């Protein structure tokens, strides 16, 4: 992705960085905060290219010079990236980064380090980085990337300028999952779910989501066409799969997405969470008024709120399904 393409995705962020570079007012440290897929890492690399590009056009990096290519491929000697080792970034990793930069500090020119998932630093790693932020050995730019800025030390947050990235579009989020060879029908759901269901362990969640999706399709069919079966399915299939409050909340989200798809088709929109179920959804759209549909969406949202109040899961779901069925 080049500078212009990122400007289309994150116009506010890119304009802010452009002005800072042009006026030579770039901060020594930035926190790039935003949802997965918002373009934080691409922006960090593009900004680094912009600062180190040797082409004559200084309004944007050329992407073709030796410096730009080395940054893109991760082998520029003055640009280092820190990634979690397992689930955390450890103190030893930060110390290794500091040692490397101290060694390279004898050479002229800007040094840049990019920390992915900066919120995953251990307390000792964060405190070690804090000293590095305050006393760099040479002209240094720190780019700290995070989806959870509130998990970072206050002392680090106070020493870096925070830039918030706009959430990525559903289309862009779905594209990220498609690039991982995830089925398009599953990608459409993952794009709508919270970040923790589409994060680094997304492949571990796919099988669970596939099963959950099938249960939603089955349960909605029974609620509206075979109500005598729905409570049995709830007892034998739904509750054993959605075992805790977090999983049940996802199940309610999937029910919500199903009904939102019905509403979307009533308005002739085609960006669906269940794209392969379009024919079935269209039939529901034909036989369901917007008033009834709005009421059903409200009931599901109420169930989500009640779930957070520790209501018994079985009673909550039985109540919801009976309301949906009686309102049909």
From TrEMBL:
Claim: Transferase is one of the keywords in the record: yes
GO terms for cellular component: DNA polymerase III complex
Molecular function GO terms recorded: 3'-5' exonuclease activity; DNA binding; DNA-directed DNA polymerase activity
Highest rank taxon of the organism: Bacteria
Domain DNA polymerase III delta subunit C-terminal span(s) in chain numbering: 250-325
Classification via InterPro entries: DNA_pol_HolB, DNA_pol_III_delta_C, DNA_Rep/Repair_Clamp_Loader, P-loop_NTPase
Key words, A-Z: DNA replication, DNA-directed DNA polymerase, Nucleotidyltransferase, Transferase
Catalytic activity: DNA(n) + a 2'-deoxyribonucleoside 5'-triphosphate = DNA(n+1) + diphosphate
EC number(s) on file: 2.7.7.7
Keyword Transferase set for record: yes
Enzyme class at the top of the EC tree: transferase
GO biological process: DNA-templated DNA replication
UniProt-recorded name of the protein: DNA polymerase III subunit delta'
Record organism: Alteribacillus iranensis
């Amino acid at each position: 992705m080049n500078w212009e393409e990122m400007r289309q995705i994150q116009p506010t962020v890119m304009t802010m960085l452009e002005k800072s570079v042009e006026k030579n007012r770039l901060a020594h440290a930035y926190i790039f905060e935003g949802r997965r897929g918002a373009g934080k890492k691409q922006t960090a690399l593009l900004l680094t290219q912009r600062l180190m590009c040797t082409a004559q056009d200084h309004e944007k990096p050329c992407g073709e010079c030796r410096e730009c290519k080395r940054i893109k491929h991760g082998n520029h000697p003055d640009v280092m990236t820190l990634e979690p080792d397992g689930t955390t970034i450890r103190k030893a990793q930060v110390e290794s980064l500091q040692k490397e930069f101290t060694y390279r500090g004898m050479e002229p020119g800007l040094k840049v380090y990019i920390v992915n998932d900066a919120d995953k630093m251990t307390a000792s790693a964060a405190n070690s980085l804090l000293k590095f932020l305050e006393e760099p050995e040479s002209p240094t730019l720190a780019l700290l990337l995070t989806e959870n800025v509130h998990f970072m030390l206050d002392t680090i947050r106070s020493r870096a300028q925070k830039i918030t990235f706009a959430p990525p579009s559903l289309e862009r989020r779905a594209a990220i999952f498609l690039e991982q060879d995830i089925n398009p029908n599953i990608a459409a759901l993952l794009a709508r779910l919270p970040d923790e269901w589409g994060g680094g362990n997304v492949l571990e969640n796919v099988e669970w989501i596939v099963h959950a999706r099938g249960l939603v399709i089955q349960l909605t069919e029974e609620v509206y066409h075979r109500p005598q079966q729905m409570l049995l399915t709830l007892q034998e299939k739904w509750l054993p799969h959605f075992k805790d409050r977090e999983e049940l909340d996802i199940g309610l989200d999937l029910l919500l997405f199903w009904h939102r798809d019905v509403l979307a088709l009533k308005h002739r929109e085609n960006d669906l969470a269940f794209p392969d179920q379009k024919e079935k959804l269209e039939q529901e759209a034909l036989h369901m008024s917007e008033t009834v549909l709005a009421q059903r969406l409200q009931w599901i949202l109420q169930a989500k709120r009640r779930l957070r109040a520790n209501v018994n899961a079985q009673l909550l779901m039985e109540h919801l399904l009976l309301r949906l069925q009686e309102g049909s």
